[in-house]
Structures are given as C-alpha cells and as structure tokens.
Design goal:
It is built from one helix and 34 strands. It has 478 residues and is an all-beta fold. The model has no long low-confidence stretch (mean pLDDT 95). The structure holds beta-D-fructofuranose.
Length: 478
C-alpha cells in the first residue's frame, strides 16, 4: 500500500494526480500499445489556476502512470483543452525520426488576446513535446468563447476534421495538414440545451453490435445539465465530411449523474480491438473547486467503451466500463433469489463493484449502500413515474455546497421491469450502469468510511424470476 492509498477520499482505481488540481481529460490518443491521457492541470494549488497539460500513460486503461507536465503556459496564454492525434501520414511534416509524430491541437487562452488554437508535437511516443513555431494555427475571429478543438481523421474525404466550441454552437473546420484550417459548417443554432457555454465537442462515428453505425456529436454544457451545473449532451446523425445533420432535435444526455463532464473519445481508435473509448472528468463546475479532498482535486471517470444501441426506434449511446477493468475484478460474494428485502454484508473495502443480473422490478424498488456511520446512497427505481433517483443527501460530507445534497433524477424511456445493473464504487464516487450502459449516472460521494452493507428493498408485486447479485473486489492500484 502506498501512502497515497490511505488518504481520505483517494480513489483506488480511478485516475487522480498525486497532487493539485485537475479538470478536463485532453489529448487522448492511442499509439504503439499505449493509451495517453493528458489533462487540464494546475501544479501550484488545489483550485483551478493557469492551465498546463498534465500527462498519464496506461497500457490497460485502468492503471495509469502519472508523467511529468507536458505543456506549460507561454506568451500566447494558458494551455486549455484540446485533443491529440497520431499523424501516421506525416501530414503536418513534424516527423523527425522513426516514430509516428503525435500532434496535440489545443486552445491557447489569453486574457487580452483571447482564445486561439495551437499545435505541439512529439516524436518520441509522447515523452517530450515541442510547440509549433507557427502558432496559432487558428486565430480568434473576435469571439470570446472559441475553444476545445477535437480533431479526427475523416477517411472518406482524406482530411482532418476539427470540432470547435464557439459560444453556444459548434464550428466544423477541415485541414489537410493540421496547420491550415477552413470553416466548413456550423451546428447548433436553435437546437440542443442552451443557457450555458458549449465546451469540449466531439464528432465521431460509432458502431453498434449489429454493424450499423451513426455519427455522434458530444457537446458539454455548463451550466445547463439536467441535474444542475455541467453535463454532456449528444446528438446522433450523419456527417458527409462537411455538415453534421442530426436525426433528432432534442438533446440526449450521455450520463444523468452530476459528475461526468468534458469527456471525449480516444483518437486513433479503432485500436487493436476496434473499440470507441471514452473518459470524462468526474466533477461538476458547481462545486469542483471546493470538494473535500486535500492534496489533490478531482478524478477521471473509469474509462468506458461506447456503443450505439437501438432502443424503441431511437439511437442511444451506451457506455460501460472497459473490459480490462472487469478482468481485474475478483468475485467475493454472491446471492440469489431476490424475492424480498435482503442485506448483503460488504467487506468494507473502498473499491468494489456490485453487479445485479436479471432483477425483476415492480413499481417502486430501491437499492442502498450503507456504512457504519449510517451514511448512505440510495438508487431508487420509480417505474410508476418512469424515473430513477440517485440520492446522496446523507452520503457523508455534503455540506460544502448547497446543491451537492440534492436528489438526482434520470427519466426512463419506458418502464423497466427487468434490469441488469453494475454499481462501481470507489473511495469518493459511484458509477451506475443500467442495462448494459443504456442508462448511466455518475456521482461523487464523500462517505467518511467505507460502505459495509448493500440493502435490496423489493416490493411484493413483482413478476418473473428473481435474479442474482455478485459482489466483486476492485483493484487497489493506488
Ligand atoms: C471545460 C473547460 C474548457 C476549457 C477548460 C479550461 O471544463 O472550461 O472549455 O478549455 O475547461 O480549464
């Protein structure tokens, strides 16, 4: 056990920097067997400050090795969010040796000069980085909010496409060389959740298990999320290399919990396994700066695989923890026959997963995690009103912000009389995945000691077979 693992609230298997402030995940790129994760980082304090890009590397998307800081602020400003790509065809001409250059495309933020887009590159598998001397590559057209470039290679038109958040719309640009960008189209006038600034867009093609695929646009918004503060909305549709055409007008939400923001997908995926991979920042701008951790602030979500799923005629983006995480779990207890209320004792570990399979529900059922101090989290299925509630109002430290204790709501597209549910618990979070990730809620939770009981409260009027609960111990990496 390292010293870090005994700190209060320190996650055991979610990425946190050893010290100081972190927000958005940035520049996620897969190259040569390594997953890179960069992130908004302030090395001189535990609150947001002049932004740098911190860096971590993993070969399995769960065990992250923190690296040194890769991008420091300069005369063009702070280093805000952005993306990275492996430039396999050396389109930008940055290649100097044997390795494929990794190119980062990020926002330079300057109080007076405004926000512009810039490049940096690495010829040694992301270990050292050089900023491009021609920065910025995309100057500011006179708009204050002009940021968070997400770049990907568009095979059909043989061009790079950049999605950029511009106030509360998205601009799509194209380029042959990552340096010279042309505006192709705009998305978002009169559509989607408004009332906050749009940030961290992502445009990518997503396949379902049946082989069909759709283009997906992610847009983070702050404030304006359904449970307050920040959240990530999305649209499914088509993209012809120029214009993104949504197939629906009303926004959908990737995650209904309060704490999954600014997440985007990994570049140069499909990786060896052909997956679309995602990670988000597990916090909310409403209270991100005042959560009760000490040496560091904020964790990332567990890395997730995204899939397109058809549900009652609608295309839904489902998300589940990556397979590598499931492979690390060790089963410790199981229980069958859920005909009535039951309590399962937990080992009192900080990190574990509760996996429920084929549980039949009636009109109102609830599941509860409780610790020795009576602190608890309740997940309630209200089929009568087609809602799921996540209640962290008595979960431990909640009084650092007035909104933190409020009950989070998620609407159901239909009543759910049979569910599978994985509850991923770490020292300061719960991530709830219902029906193979078709409904997701992620929330930070600051319980002051580990949960020791899992209570199942089931009503009488349920139909069908009872299911199975398995408890797994999760890896203690930190
Ligand atoms: C999103 C965000 C981005 C910005 C970064 C600054 O959380 O506001 O729009 O680039 O954080 O740290």
């Amino acid at each position: 056990y390292s010293e870090v693992s005994t700190e209060p609230f320190r996650p055991q298997f979610h990425f946190t920097p050893k010290e100081n402030w972190m927000n958005d995940p940035n520049g996620m790129v897969y190259y040569d067997g390594e997953y890179h994760l960069f992130y908004q980082y302030y090395p001189d304090g535990t609150e947001w400050g002049p932004m740098h890009w911190g860096h971590a590397i993993s070969t399995d998307l769960v065990d992250w090795e923190e690296q040194d800081i890769k991008l420091y602020p300069d005369e063009l400003g702070y280093i805000f969010s952005g993306s990275a790509v492996a430039d396999h065809h050396n389109t930008a001409g940055f290649k100097t040796g044997e390795e494929t250059p990794l190119v980062a495309i990020f926002t330079h933020h300057h109080e007076e000069k405004g926000q512009v887009q810039s490049l940096a590159y690495s010829n040694d598998k992301g270990r050292t980085w050089e900023k491009y001397e021609g920065n910025p590559v995309l100057p500011n057209p006179g708009i204050a909010d002009f940021r968070d470039p997400k770049v990907s290679w568009h095979e059909q038109s043989e061009k790079w496409i950049m999605a950029l958040a511009v106030k509360d719309v998205i601009h799509l640009y194209s380029s042959k060389d990552l340096k010279d960008w042309s505006l192709e189209s705009e998305f978002g006038k009169g559509i989607g959740a408004k009332g906050g600034v749009w940030e961290c867009p992502d445009l990518f093609e997503l396949a379902g298990d049946d082989g069909q695929s759709k283009w997906v646009m992610f847009i983070s918004i702050n404030p304006g999320a359904p449970n307050g503060g920040s959240g990530t909305q999305y649209f499914t549709g088509d993209f012809d290399g120029i214009t993104f055409t949504p197939e629906h007008q009303e926004e959908k939400w990737l995650d209904w919990g309060t704490d999954n923001y600014a997440g985007v997908t990994w570049a140069n995926i499909p990786d060896k396994d052909g997956r679309t991979l995602f990670i988000g920042w597990m916090s909310n701008w409403d209270y991100a700066n005042i959560t009760p951790t000490q040496k560091w602030r904020s964790a990332m979500t567990i890395a997730r695989e995204l899939k397109l799923v058809r549900d009652g005629g609608e295309n839904i983006v489902a998300s589940l923890p990556v397979g590598e995480f499931y492979e690390m779990l060790e089963e410790v207890t199981s229980a069958e026959s859920f005909d009535k209320d039951q309590t399962i004792a937990l080992a009192g570990k900080k990190g574990f997963v509760i996996s429920l399979k084929d549980i039949s529900l009636g009109e109102n059922e609830s599941f509860k995690l409780v610790n020795e101090s009576g602190e608890n989290i309740t997940i309630q299925f209200d089929n009568a009103n087609q809602k799921v509630y996540l209640d962290r109002s008595q979960s431990g430290k909640v009084d650092f912000h007035e909104a933190f204790a409020s009950v989070q709501e998620m609407p159901l597209r239909k009543k759910l009389y049979k569910i599978n549910m994985d509850i991923v618990v770490d020292a300061s979070s719960v991530e709830v995945f219902i029906n193979e990730g078709m409904y997701v809620m992620t929330a930070q939770v600051f319980n002051t000691n580990p949960f020791t009981r899992f209570e199942v409260h089931l009503s009488e009027n349920r139909e069908g077979d009872s299911g199975m609960v398995r408890i797994y111990e999760a890896p203690a990496i930190r």
